[in-house]
Design brief:
79% of the residues lie in helices and 0% in strands. It has 160 residues and is mostly helical. It is a multi-pass membrane protein.
């Protein structure tokens, strides 16, 4: 006895709706994603940098006794981490030199993962993924990078 699978009239409609939803999701602007990632990363790293600045003596103690980052003296490591977190975050938030500003934070994330808190790998992988997205895609249309590029192109075209 052969059984035949009967098509439900709802299935073609469901397939069409899934296709429409997928198409709609594919229209989310990359620039919006870049902006969201820039804001999220800046919030993470600015908060961390401000915490370090709030009590820098304690920060140095943490670098000496808990973090134990190799190769660098604790005070220098604390200073470099703080400057990197605050400086690069500011650039990323503004969308200024986004690709370049993401690289030191990516390096810092790697150091934190390998030497300080390897058990937090999921969080660090999330940060690294967002940072790599910004390295690959840049700050997007909603960035100072784009404003500067447009200004340069207008000036170049005007001068020609």
């Amino acid at each position: 006895m052969a059984t035949h699978i009967m098509e439900s009239p709802a299935l073609p409609g469901l397939a069409d709706r899934l296709h429409q939803a997928t198409d709609l999701a594919g229209r989310i602007p990359v620039s919006l994603l870049a902006l969201m990632m820039r804001v999220a990363l800046a919030a993470i790293f600015i908060k961390s940098g401000m915490t370090k600045l709030a009590n820098f003596d304690l920060t140095i103690s943490l670098f000496q006794d808990e973090y134990m980052v190799p190769l660098l003296p604790p005070a220098l490591a604390a200073l470099l981490a703080t400057v990197t977190e605050l400086g690069c975050s500011g650039f990323i938030l503004a969308g200024l030199a986004t690709r370049f500003a993401a690289l030191p934070l990516l390096g810092l994330t790697f150091v934190i993962e390998v030497f300080v808190y390897p058990e937090n790998w999921v969080e660090h992988l999330t940060w690294a993924s967002m940072l790599l997205f910004l390295v690959a895609q840049g700050g997007g249309k909603l960035s100072l990078d784009r404003v500067i590029l447009r200004s340069y192109e207008r000036h170049r075209d005007f001068a020609s």
